[in-house]
Amino acid sequence: MTHELLTIGRISVDIYPNDIGVGLEDVNSFGKYLGGSPSNVAVAAARHGRRTGVITRTGDDAFGTYLHRELHKFSVDDTFVTPVPGLQTPVTFCAIKPATDEFPLYFYGRFPTAPDLQIEAEELDLGAIRNAGIFWSTVTGLCQEPSRSAHLAAHQARPRTGLGQGQFTVLDLDYRPMFWASEEEARAQVARILPHVTVAIGNDRECAVAVGEGTPDEQADRLLAAGVEIAVVKLGAEGVMAKTRTERVVSAPVPVETLNGLGAGDSFGGAFCHGLLSGWPLEQVLDYANAAGAIVASRLSCADAMPTPDEVTSLLAERGRAVPATGSGASQLATEGAAL
């Protein structure tokens, strides 16, 4: 099977409280869900009808079995998900306090290493990676060997294509300080990957780690100068900006009542990939992805909360936003790509 989207990296069991608004010390019951940003992105895109798969590792344990079952449930290919003997499947706890906009994460089973950081370059199916419509990775996957070398090998296997040529290589700038010795170490590793990347996505802090402090436009320009074709900088309450060498667009946020801010970025990522694969104009890709992220922010879980296309287009229509056409057709991105 040729994947429309193939992701690599973190997977875990997310443990979310059923008691909202209190600290973990006061929670009486929890629910468990599939988690891990690259895995959630694959789930999100699958909800939009895309053929997706994930390259990752679990422990050889009951939680690993659970994650395989969840991937099957969400129609995500788990061919490249295998166990690592001697390591346990990571578990991530979260406290949900929407009134204070706090959603702290507590990682278990990731230190000193985790199964998904044991991905070996020699184990990769480079053909599947090379042929995928979109290949998605995160900065977290660069924090430790052998995952770091595997990520580099995967990116080197990808064809270098411009906009409108049917393939995209996406780097989620997902910087988590607890996985790194310093920001300087992370920046050095990002610099090795960026020349192989066509799309980079991050918020202000993540972009600062990747290419230095500055305004969103300055950060986007530095990403473009590093070889990226589309730089996406999330602006918080001001929405999200995407910049190419010929275009700059900003999508205003889609207002919703936030229940759990976690997972919104992964929903954004899966919907963004769907829009790219559909050949929509960049502005419509951003609006669609913004709406998808907003829907998940209004729900409790992440993977289980990923919206369908009908839910996203309904929210766009309710908020008076343009609804993208479902046909592929000639796209604005393709037109720009021919000019680059």
> What is the SS-derived class?
alpha/beta
> Architecture, CATH level 2?
3-Layer(aba) Sandwich
Q: For the terminal residues, how far apart are their CA atoms?
A: 31 Å
CATH topology: UDP-N-acetylmuramoyl-L-alanine:D-glutamate ligase
Name of the CATH first level: Alpha Beta
User: Would you identify the CATH H-level superfamily?
Assistant: Ribokinase
Strand content: 15-25%
The count of domains is: 1
Q: Estimate the mean pLDDT confidence.
A: 92
Q: What general outline do the C-alpha atoms trace?
A: globular
Order of helices and strands: EEEHEHEEEEHEHEHEHHEEEHHHH
Write down the Rg. Answer: 19 Å
Question: Roughly how much helix do the residues carry, as a percent range?
Answer: 25-40%
**Assembly context of the chains:** single chain
Largest beta-sheet characterization: 10 strands, mixed
General description of the model:
The radius of gyration is 19 Å and the shape is globular. The chain has one domain (about 5-10, about 35-90, about 110-320): UDP-N-acetylmuramoyl-L-alanine:D-glutamate ligase (3-Layer(aba) Sandwich), CATH 3.40.1190. Strands 1, 4, 5, 6, 9, 10, 11, 12, 13 and 14 form a 10-stranded mixed sheet that branches. The chain has helices at about 35-45, 60-75, 125-130, 145-155, 185-195, 205-210, 215-225, 265-280, 280-295, 310-320, 330-340, and strands at about 5-10, 10-15, 30-35, 50-60, 75, 80-85, 90-95, 105-110, 135-140, 170, 200-205, 230-235, 240-245, 250. The longest helix is centred in the last third of the chain and has 16 residues, at about 280-295. Mean pLDDT is about 90; it is low at about 325-330 and about 335-340. It is α/β, with parallel strands linked by helices. Helices cover about 35% and strands about 20% of the residues.
